[in-house]
Amino acid sequence: MALTLYVDTDRWRAHQRSVLVDFPDLVPVCKGNGYGFGHERLAEEVSLLDLPMIAVGTTYEAARMRELFSGDILVLTPYRRNEEPVPLPDRVVRSASSVDGVYGLVGSRVVVEVMSSMRRHGVTPGELGKLRAALEDVRLEGFAIHLPLDRTDGTDAVEEVIGWIDRLRSARLPLETMFVSHLSGEELARLRQQFPQTRFRARVGTRLWLGDHEATDYRGTVLDVTPVAKGDRFGYRQQKAPGDGWLAVVSGGTSHGVGLEAPKALHGMTSRAKGVARAGLATVNRNLSPFVWDGKQRWFAEPPHMQVSILFVPGEAAGPQVGDEMRAILRHTTTQYDRVVES
Question: The pTM is what?
């Protein structure tokens, strides 16, 4: 009895190949928990795609990935002088987001990140003069720009990249390769057409591994079902059942990531109203679970336990049976499943 990730492998891989068509020369990103699939599995998939480079989040991930992947490994987190040293092979490429960071990577293979409208980190236009001298002591692999997902001010992502290309050229910096993130296939094609002498390499993670939502499916096994009447007390806190129905114990709890949710950016009055409604319900211990039964997401009967969740299924719904599986709407990046079943 488990929380299971079901994967339609042929469909999943077909989607990967379709992304590769739209993003030739892409660099697959494998960071965190490997987008729910794990580093070992994604390293295998990148090898099957015959791609020469993979990107990871940290030096610690790079140390693990070197045993799994034989090609180049790009570390996305920028180098800092006071970071803990991690022994890495020469095929690991470091990112630098400051002139000082470049000076600290003497002899290393380096990608220099420039400051985008994300305002997260990166070399600024005013630092380009100092950057030229720093690059003399490293092996420059290219420049990189990490773009925002949403552009609410109506600006053009391609124009932002072009602006940086112009700045780098004006500073007489070598611009053979540009790593980009969060561009569409059409936007990337525009850049390739306008700058044929520059190699554009898209760093792609979510779109590559999770872009086809129908290729994967989480399901939790029903372990126990107990009928309850309105007012019956149950659970750790002895709450009252809100009506007649069933308490269903389902595989999947906090250790799996069930009940954990990243903050969401809300756009528009409708989504904000829904957020306010959810917050109001939570104050009276009404929290919607990720588990779906009989066509609807069901409420947690009480907060999820470590390895299971207890759900309230109302009497008007179909009664669950031990051994049934409930579909679960979960974030791949925060979920730890018990097993994978591939078809």
Answer: 0.90
User: What pLDDT does residue 265 have?
Assistant: 56
Instruction: Residue 266: count other Cβ atoms within 10 Å of its Cβ.
Output: 13
Tell me how long the chain is.
343
CA distance 275 to 53: 40
Taking the C-alpha atoms of residue 239 and residue 230, their distance in angstroms, rounded to an integer, is 11
- Dihedrals phi, psi of 10, to nearest 5 degrees: -60, -45
Q: What is the pLDDT of residues 242-299, one digit of tens each?
A: 999 999 999 999 999 998 765 555 455 554 444 433 433 333 356 999 999 999 999 9
Alpha helices in the chain (DSSP H): 9-22, 39-48, 59-65, 99-103, 128-134, 157-170, 185-194, 206-210, 268-282
The greatest distance separating any two alpha carbons of the chain, rounded to the nearest whole angstrom, comes to 76
How far, CA to CA in Å, does 312 sit from each of 119, 166, 206, 329?
45, 60, 33, 17
Instruction: Report the sign of the C-alpha dihedral through residues 170, 173, 179, 185, in that order.
Output: positive
- Distance, CA of 54 to CA of 71 (rounded, Å): 7
